[in-house]
Specification:
Number of domains of chain B: 2
Strand order of the largest sheet of chain A: 3-5-1-12-9-10-11
Number of helices of chain B: 5
Bound molecules: FE2/S2 (inorganic) cluster
Number of strands of chain B: 5
Largest sheet of chain A: 7 strands, mixed
Number of domains of chain A: 3
Radius of gyration of chain B: 16 Å
CATH topology of the largest domain in chain A: Aldehyde Oxidoreductase, domain 4
Oligomer: heterodimer
Helix content of chain A: 25-40%
Structural class of chain A: alpha+beta
Distance between the termini of chain A: 58 Å
CATH architecture of the largest domain in chain A: 2-Layer Sandwich
Structural class of chain B: alpha+beta
Strand content of chain B: 15-25%
Helix content of chain B: 25-40%
CATH superfamily of the largest domain in chain A: Aldehyde oxidase/xanthine dehydrogenase, molybdopterin binding domain
CATH architecture of the largest domain in chain B: Roll
CATH class of the largest domain in chain A: Alpha Beta
Number of strands of chain A: 28
């Protein structure tokens, strides 16, 4: 069996299951000390004064810095946003606040001490005199007249006003509509909760003028670039950023936060290696949050139940500052997905981005696409109900036909491929759909047992981020290609240097599978290096389900170059033309003359000996590719949730969850299934339990794991997963990416199931999380259903 | 102000001076260099720091090092027998029970405690037994599978059936 497509065990595991993996907080450098950041307890306040004198003389304290004295020289000391929308208001985000604090957790000072206990002790002794001001934390309230202002330059707290699609055409469609449905919905604010807290260890080499920062990063080169451009100001070649083992990210470790820059400045100012690691409450206050939308959506239907128009207006919270990729999330990663799997001839979406006195909001697993899917899949159920159709039939009626690809949506994407019917059929079969509907009808008739609900979500995502020209035209201040270098050693073993930067996805295994498959070498002969700016040429990192589709394709292209060079060497040795050489089953042959062959190892060795070698060829066998994808990839699938609701308590139990995903070709099915499982848990978590809640003063009420309800093992079932395979037509591997599918599809599937169960109470929509209290109220306040 | 403690960790005896307030997890990680035990919350809520103290699973962020005086501690580093993985370690690898691996030492240690009490747990019992441990990567599906697999392996090998 080919190694591409095989569920081989992960090479990452032996270190991680024996406790030998080294995460940032496991690292120790000679003379290392610790930093603790003093954070604002107020959501909005003027800093009147900061007295560091007591802290400075506390036991073990080496230095205390404030926003006035941490950053030296001309260098920026700010963390910027990297995605610019037209007319975007971009207030500075200083790494330590100087005059005003704008959210609880905003850093105001930092204490460096010999150990972490002393640093935290002394941080308590820093006296900050605040003049508290009114705060606004709700995205809708923030845009209302008279709301407290987050930034003077952002009038009415408006960060941007963006739209996509054809407004007039959409209005015209609505004027033709036989039926319309509408919904107002919230997409709840979430905290990513990688189990490893964020951290950084910075070391300054004064003699060389070089800074090394180990950081919990999904994209070390991007961190380095932003340090050079904005937060540190050292030249790029004088900064080395290393992502050691990283304990999960889910988007939260993409962004350049003040904290790693603070650690770096502390190291440069004190001459000592400085480690900073967040406590869990600190991560909850400072890891970029996800989602937080308030939307109004309307759908127009013709008399047969075909969708003829969709309009959406969304208010999206940005939080107190614009985080690294924040402006892209509720715009280009959201509005572009609003056509879903459906042939919708007119769409218009407008998004207002609002500053609020809260933790910044940025990409969290799925980033924009779960919000779009939630909205479209909710309104699809309302459309089905309006037409009196089964939700599966209503979706099928509106699917883009399999022969319509490539399909240009009304919201700027060109879907390259798709075949939505078979995935839906398979998912329906997996749950035994008709039997479930019969059971539901039976229970409704008898009034016995728990309420049964079945929810569908047929979703699409655009991932494999992304074609550089496209994202550039949309405001990205970076190209979203990926790089790979394939170094073949003289003895034929291989080291791959990838610009992707995995943190649990198993790249070291799957990337080796790609190379082993192409070169027909044993997978154990291939090593994968990632996550270090000194070792790896450049890289955009791991997020947006891009590592296999973009990073893997880069590796494949570098392998192509290796083979092409190998052919030249083999041609010389075989006295044939390079054009006549084929590479098959790990050897170079003259086409049509199987006896004339050169083994892989002989060609490699000759590349390094160069004794018997073409005159015009450089020795060595090492190739680099920078792969720029031609399009996004478009994974899709059908997910079905089955829930039971206790009539007395409103408790929702997820009885079954089945999904059929199409992520294109699969490199390692075991890893792909694992990605789906994890994504599902996060999406189901949002649907049923998770929510970041602020009070009116801007205090985060869900600041610990006591109050923020993460999914735990006993709250979830095992999942039924399956796949259809529609390969991506435009990348060399035919892969599409799987990291986000589960999180994108499942909030809608679960919510649709709960609303389906409650439909006899007249419930048309409930916002997440679907807590017992919310469900109980829905059953007991509607008053027009069965008891 | 230091307190002298004697503690056996992974079969090795240590005698050390510690501050009264020093957490056991920091003692293990920083004083003994056993960084396999991870810290996810420091508040007893995530389970990443789970170890065995006298055979019982304990969250080492919620114990003081001085409380462990005189005890015998097993951490993830003490689970394998030389090159031979503990059946739980092997099962986590075989069943893809880990992704980023950060929760994994805690998961393996809590499972070790669980299987000591109940060598043949049902899926529901495994899920209940993992209540105190958070994993954000796997959705628990393959962790549950790994523990069930390990239980089977251990019972097959364990020899009293
Ligand atoms: S670190 Fe001990 S339970 Fe989280
Ligand atoms: S494997 Fe990453 S938290 Fe469990």
């Amino acid at each position: 069996m080919s190694v591409f497509g095989a569920s081989i065990k992960r090479r990452e595991d032996p270190a991680l299951i024996t406790g030998k993996g080294k995460y940032t907080d496991d690292l120790v450098r000679p003379g290392m000390c610790f930093a603790a950041i003093v954070r604002s307890p107020h959501a909005h306040a003027r800093i009147m004064s900061i007295d560091t004198s007591e802290a400075a003389t506390a036991p073990g304290v080496i230095a205390v810095f404030t926003g006035q004295d941490l950053v030296r020289g001309e260098a920026g000391g700010v963390v910027p946003t990297c995605w610019l929308l037209p007319n975007l208001v971009t207030p500075d985000h200083p790494i330590l606040a100087k005059d005003l604090v704008r959210h609880v957790g905003d850093g105001v000072a930092v204490v460096v001490a010999e150990n972490r206990y002393q640093a935290h002790d002394a941080a308590e002794l820093v006296e900050v005199d605040y003049d508290p001001l009114d705060a606004v934390t709700d995205v809708v309230a923030a845009l209302e007249p008279g709301a407290p202002q987050v930034h003077a330059e952002a009038e009415g707290n408006l960060a941007f006003d963006w739209d996509l699609g054809d407004k007039e055409k959409t209005e015209a469609a609505f004027s033709q509509a036989a039926h319309t449905v509408s919904v107002d919905l919230r997409n709840s604010r979430l905290i990513p909760h990688a189990v490893e807290p964020r951290g950084a260890l910075a070391e300054w080499d004064d003699a060389k003028g070089e800074l090394t920062v180990w950081v919990t990063s999904q994209n070390p080169h991007v961190h380095r670039l932003l340090m050079t451009l904005a937060s540190i100001g050292l030249p790029e070649h004088k900064i080395r950023v290393i992502a050691p083992e990283v304990g999960g990210g889910f988007g939260s470790k993409i962004h350049h936060y003040p904290d790693e820059a603070i650690a770096a400045w502390c190291a440069m100012n004190t001459g000592r290696p400085v480690k900073w690691v967040a406590t869990r409450s600190e991560t909850n206050l400072t890891d970029a949050h996800g989602r937080d939308h308030a939307s109004h959506a309307e759908m127009a239907l013709d008399a047969e139940g075909r969708i003829i128009g969709l309009k959406v207006e969304t208010k999206a919270a940005m939080g107190a500052y614009l985080s690294t990729f924040a402006p892209s999330v509720p715009t280009y990663l959201y509005g572009t997905l609003l056509s879903g799997q459906y042939d919708i001839p007119a769409i218009h979406v407008r998004t207002l981005g609002a500053f609020t006195h809260t933790t910044p909001v940025d990409a969290y697993r799925g980033a924009g696409r779960p919000e779009a899917t939630f909205l479209i899949e909710r309104i699809m159920d309302l459309g089905a109900a309006k037409m009196g159709l089964d939700p599966g039939d209503f979706r099928r009626k509106n699917f883009i036909a399999p022969d319509a690809f490539p399909y240009a949506t009304q919201v700027a994407l060109e879907y390259d491929s798709g075949n939505y019917g078979p995935a839906l059929d398979r998912a329906l079969e997996m749950v035994g759909y008709q039997a479930l509907r019969d059971e539901q009808a039976e229970r409704r008739k008898s009034g016995d047992g728990k309420l049964l609900g079945i929810g569908l979500s047929t979703f699409i995502e655009a991932c494999g981020l992304a074609p550089s020209q496209v994202v550039g035209s949309l405001g990205a201040q970076a190209g979203l290609w990926e790089s790979a270098k394939v170094r073949v050693h003289p003895t034929g073993t291989i080291t791959v240097y990838s610009g992707s930067s995995g943190h649990g996805q198993g790249h070291e295994t799957t990337f080796a599978q790609i190379v082993a498959d192409r070169l027909a070498v044993d997978v154990d002969q291939v090593e994968v290096v990632q996550g270090d700016t000194r070792e790896v040429q450049f890289g955009m990192g791991t997020y947006g389900s891009r590592s296999a589709a973009v990073g893997g394709s880069a590796i494949s292209e570098a392998v192509d170059k290796v083979i092409a060079k190998g052919k030249k060497i083999a041609a010389h040795l075989l006295e044939a033309s390079p054009d006549d050489i084929v590479f098959e089953d790990g050897a170079f042959h003259v086409q049509g003359v199987p006896a004339k062959t050169q083994a892989w190892g002989d060609v490699v060795l000759q590349a390094y000996l160069a004794h018997n070698y073409p005159d015009d060829l450089e020795p060595g066998l090492e190739e680099t590719a920078f792969y720029n994808p031609a399009n996004f990839t478009y994974p899709f699938g059908a997910h079905i949730a089955v829930v039971e609701i206790d009539r007395d308590t409103g408790h929702v139990e997820l009885r079954q969850y089945a999904c059929c995903d199409d992520v294109g070709n699969v490199i390692n099915p075991m890893i792909v299934e694992g990605q789906v499982h994890g994504g599902l848990a996060q999406g189901i978590g949002q649907a049923l339990w998770e929510e970041a809640v602020y009070d009116d003063y801007g205090q985060l009420l869900t600041g610990t794991l006591m109050d923020y309800a993460l999914p735990r093992a006993h709250m979830l079932p095992s999942f039924d997963t399956d796949r259809t395979v529609t390969p991506c037509p435009h990348n060399p591997l035919g892969v599409k990416g799987v990291g986000e599918a589960g999180t994108i599809a499942s909030p809608a599937a679960v919510t649709n199931a709960v609303v389906d169960a409650l439909s006899t109470f007249g419930v048309e929509h409930l916002d997440m999380p679907l807590t017992s209290e919310k469900v109980w109220r829905a059953m007991n306040q509607s008053g027009n259903g069965q008891g | 102000m230091g307190h002298r403690i004697q503690i056996e960790v992974n079969g090795k005896r240590y005698e050390r001076e510690v501050d009264a307030r020093r957490l056991l997890v920091h003692f293990l990680r920083e004083d003994l260099g056993l960084t396999g035990t991870n810290v996810g919350c420091e508040t007893s809520l995530c389970g990443a720091c789970t170890i065995l103290v006298n055979g019982q699973s304990v969250k080492s962020c919620t114990q003081l090092a001085v409380q462990a005086d005189g005890t015998s501690v097993t951490t993830i580093e003490g689970m394998a027998d030389g090159q031979d993985l503990h059946p739980l370690q092997a099962a986590f690898r075989d069943n893809h029970g880990l992704q980023c691996g950060y929760c994994t030492p805690g998961m393996i240690m809590v499972a070790a405690g669980m299987l000591a009490d109940n060598p043949a747990p049902t899926e529901q019992e495994i899920r209940q037994g993992l209540k105190g441990n958070v994993c954000r990567c796997t959705g628990y599906h393959n962790i549950v599978k790994s523990i069930a697999d390990a239980a089977e392996q251990m019972n097959g090998k364990g020899g009293d059936s």
